[in-house]
Amino acid sequence: MNDMRILERDVDANAIKIAAKGVQVYYGDTHAIKDVDVDIQDKTVTAFIGPSGCGKSTFLRCLNRMNDTIDVARVEGDIRIDGEDIYDKAVDPVQLRAKVGMVFQKPNPFPKSIFDNVAYGPRIHGLAKNKSDLDDIVERALRRAAIWNEVKDRLAAPGTGLSGGQQQRLCIARAVATEPEVLLMDEPCSALDPIATAQVEELIDELRQNYSVVIVTHSMQQAARVSQKTAFFHLGNLVEYGETGQIFTNPEDPRTESYITGRIG
Amino acid sequence: MALSLTGYVVLAVLVLTIAAFFAAKSKAKSTANGDVRLLHSLPNYYGYNAAMFTAVPALGIMLIWLLAQPMMIENSVFKLIPERIVEEGSSRGLVMSDVRRVAEGLDIAVAQGAITDTEADNIRSEARDIRALLGEVGVALGSDVEPEVLFAAQEYRTLSSVGAFWMAVVVLGVAFIGAAVSIVVSKADFRARNTVERGALALLILAASLAIMTTVGIVLSMLFESINFFRLHSWTDFFFGGSWAPNFRGDSDLSILPLLWGTLYISVIALLVAVPIGLFAAIYLSEYAGPKVRSAAKPLLEILAGIPTIVYGLFALLTVGPALVSIFGRGDQGLLGVEWMSGATAVLTAGLVMGIMLIPFVSSLSDDIINAVPQAMRDGSFGLGATQSETIRQVVLPAALPGIVGAVLLAASRAIGETMIVVLGAGAIAKFSLNPLEAMTTITTRIVSQLTGDTDFASPETLVAFALGLTLFVLTLGLNVLALYIVRKYREQYE
Ligand SMILES: Nc1ncnc2c1ncn2[C@@H]1O[C@H](COP(=O)(O)OP(=O)(O)OP(=O)(O)O)[C@@H](O)[C@H]1O
Ligand SMILES: [Mg+2]
């Protein structure tokens, strides 16, 4: 793994952006997340890895309260963003989600034009002062998501008419257009070719300058390339969490080692 | 006697069918030397195949025979009746029904033992009072039986029994041949399963085409009557005339336009009531209501849809109409102190009640459509920090819009075709007016009124009902086709 070199980036003691303690998630009777403690740092890319069904998406959805939309889901424990308990009654989940953006595992463009898809968030939150401002926001978001060149001539075409990988990048553009402080990305490159993947990884690295990014991925190489911190989930437990270089070169837990070397998963 | 012979034939065919089933099954097994795995199909399929080839052609021929035989017999018997009787008895149909009745009477008399079979064939009206004879066995005749009619009836009986005999022969023969052939071919490599499959397919196609054929039949009968109408009345008056004034002494104004105006006016009011309320109810139920509320409210709304429309009509006439009159009418005693509305029947009365009737229709269709919008779409919107109502307005409803438009069009076509509410609630005056507090009439109410009471199916005043019905049919059919097209197009979007 040559990529390991990249990890030698300095991860200074950044401020803690998200602090989760004793998080439990139940889907009806299924216990999907078991007592997870994790501190996610600001201006850092954190990767969640683990075998399918281990609860990565579930945990990610706790961080912006998307589990509220699932009737059977129940979240316990304490999750703080910038020291504020996001499950507190006083917190408005709508406000929270504007701050904590999300790219979903399955691309879900709205049945609207490409432009309107990206402009959706800025319009709702009044981020654009006028039409040309909005045009700029949309163009910048599409450029950052590495899809501008493909769609610049068909901004009025429906977003649902794009290919799977294009839809995925459109959803990334849609999420970054809202300028969230934290960006949660659930397998954002699962349908992308290597070139687009590299561009999205570049975007993630760029976002790190100002935001904190959490990315779920099934690609060890990707986790190693883009992240500074890595969390390994297994059967709903957080098995190991630490510096990415540490996890990939010298894991403490035998389960982590067998997963990254390809023996479980 | 013919009937019971038919019964025996059916019974025999069924017995033969069962026998063929088991014979083919065991024949197939024996050709495979008892090893079922060597057969192309499971043994039962050989049985089904044989049963199918025994029963279906035989019973099919029987059915056609039973339909065709009376017509052919009537044709040949009719030649025996001289012109004289037809002229007196007014029409061929009436005389023939006399003949059939006498023939039936003779059958019954024979069955009860009042006369013997040969007597029935040779009896002469000069020799015996046939009317009294048949009266004794319970067949009352309107007049004395003419010798020619009696002779025709006897011929009718003879031909019927000959026909029935040959039918039995042919049907049993076909059944035997079918059974024999299908048993003979039941060898190990015969593809019985595929033939049975084709049989099942044919059955399904038959059912589907029967449904379509009846629709076509209905349309055609309407069409023929409408053509009769247009022979008697000018089509320009019907489609472009300005007034509706049927006059049973003839020379009526029969224009559809005033009726169409009333129909559309009432429908528009109904939709103005039903669409917002139904849609909002659907949004509440599908997006906001908890599972408990939903499980209670949905069935309740659907019960509304099951109320017979005549009940809504009564509601319009007895409750809504008078309530509206007390608001907009009665001069100084009224709520508003105005005299705008004189009777309970009015466009507004019918429109409001029809709107109430359509609410559950709109809401349950829209509810299904809104639920079909994938959750991922909502998640995407929530994930960007949108509120629930923003999500509904900007994502869910636009996504569901084509389907909702389809639902509204379906509701419109129901409103246009609705009858009982407008019969009771709308009034009977055909006119062009914009005032919703006046009584007006619709296409459906006029169809009802043109066909009730003493009707003469040769006058344009009656036949116009068919032309009205056909126009209504074309109108609602067009709306339904459009609605289904839109709904289907929308479905594809997510599949
Ligand atoms: N909406 C739901 N209702 C019930 N159970 C759910 C729901 N979503 C997830 N689960 C269960 O929770 C567990 C964790 O699911 P989750 O989607 O978080 O897995 P994941 O780690 O993201 O897997 P993958 O890598 O395949 O996306 C699984 O066992 C799954 O069956
Ligand atoms: Mg997942």
TrEMBL record, chain A:
The keyword Translocase does not apply. It comes from Roseobacter insulae. This is Phosphate ABC transporter ATP-binding protein PstB. One of its GO terms (cellular component) is membrane. InterPro entries: AAA+_ATPase, ABC_transporter-like_ATP-bd, ABC_transporter-like_CS, PstB-like. Keywords: ATP-binding, Nucleotide-binding, Phosphate transport, Transport. GO terms for biological process: phosphate ion transmembrane transport. GO terms for molecular function: ATP binding; ATP hydrolysis activity; phosphate transmembrane transporter activity. Residues 18-260 form the ABC transporter domain.
UniProtKB/TrEMBL annotation, chain B:
GO terms for cellular component: plasma membrane. Pfam families: BPD_transp_1, DUF3708. GO terms for molecular function: phosphate transmembrane transporter activity. PROSITE patterns: ABC_TM1. It is a multi-pass membrane protein. It is found in: Cell inner membrane; Cell membrane; Membrane. Signal peptide: none annotated. Part of the binding-protein-dependent transport system for phosphate; probably responsible for the translocation of the substrate across the membrane. This is Phosphate transport system permease protein. The keyword Cell inner membrane applies. GO terms for biological process: phosphate ion transport. Residues 260-483 form the ABC transmembrane type-1 domain. The chain crosses the membrane at residues 6-24, 45-68, 164-188, 200-224, 264-285, 305-328, 340-362, 395-416, 463-487. InterPro entries: MetI-like, Phosphate_PstC, PstC_N. Belongs to the binding-protein-dependent transport system permease family. CysTW subfamily. Keywords: Cell inner membrane, Cell membrane, Membrane, Phosphate transport, Transmembrane, Transmembrane helix, Transport.
